Amino acid sequence: MSSALLEDVETSAPPPPQCHDQQIHSTRHQVIVKCEDTMKLLTGLVFCSLVLAVSGGVFSFVREAAQGSWDMWRAYQDMKEANFIGADKYFHARGNYDAARRGPGGAWAAEVISTMKLLTGLVFCSLVLAVSGGVFSFMKEAALGSWDMWRAIRDLNEANFIGSQRYFYARGKYDAARRGPGGAWAAEMIR
Question: Its Gene Ontology biological processes (predicted)?
Fold first, then answer.
């Protein structure tokens, strides 16, 4: 009988108290497990987003941009080889067309390269030719002149009249030249 009472006392007794270190270790273990679960979730999300991005066309955009850059380079090389006055417009248009045919990446590359052509000229004129006293004003005038030319070209595209390009280009050049030497330079570079 004493053994039955002893078993009842052992089973109904509260668990032995844990020391403070064991409670902290238990809490740390729970936190570590939660962090591991969070890291697994984040890793899964990153992996899924990469897989979806690959199937969504991110790499095709990069490939199109590289091919569009190559088209622009090939047109530039052909222009240098032709060495004919006024041929630059044709070859730039051909390079832009070939690059844009590649897709959105090619069109983006053509736009960036064309913009860089203008910016390279701005930097060259302001640094090498040492525009005196007004490097920043020259660049400001050139930027505003570029805006005037862009506005004239946009208006030309909206008007869509046969033979109206002379008027709009002349208007853009006039507006740009009124800005100052930088604007006149930008109008000549954009043509």
Answer: acute-phase response
